Amino acid sequence: DADVTQTPRNRITKTGKRIMLECSQTKGHDRMYWYRQDPGLGLRLIYYSFDVKDINKGEISDGYSVSRQAQAKFSLSLESAIPNQTALYFCATSDGTPRSNQPQHFGDGTRLSIL
Amino acid sequence: GDSVTQMEGPVTLSEEAFLTINCTYTATGYPSLFWYVQYPGEGLQLLLKATKADDKGSNKGFEATYRKETTSFHLEKGSVQVSDSAVYFCALGRTSGTYKYIFGTGTRLKVLA
After folding, report:
1. Which parts of chain A register pLDDT below 50?
2. Which are the contacts of A29, defined by CB distance < 8 A and separation ≥ 6?
């Protein structure tokens, strides 16, 4: 089984709909992240969480919200989807105390299309 | 602010050719540097990392050296294979202030048989 699992893997929906993307991990990591990937733009950070009580906005948080339901679960919501939120979304986790430099571990992504 | 710049692709090579993908960074403090690889339909996987100046990360025949004097972390491989076709991302992990990662825009590599 994958260490970082994202559901669904693909989703097509309409403008204005509320959508939730889910991420769960079995790595026991405290830190979790949501990114979106767009061609030519690389990965951009949407939100990140360093523990259950710690939620932080990333560089492109407008139009998104998150919930950290447990150490192992971190969900991303689009309250009212719009077409320019069509992208590939990745969840990632990392371990580490402050000042550590551990790599991130990624899920396989959710391809979201908004019509 | 901190940033990562990597060469634009796509890069197309013949099998057994030498590969270089350039990556330079701007950062305060002493970041760690990473290369990730993304195969079609998959998430990013760590390829190699280096945590301090002059460190060399290596894995699967790929290498990259942390050069603080040139703020670079170029990825190299002596002989590429068709199976190396993927998108490669350079990233830094910032340790000053709020710890998070910054990614380059990715470089697509296509290796032809």
Report:
1. none
2. A93, A94, A95, A105
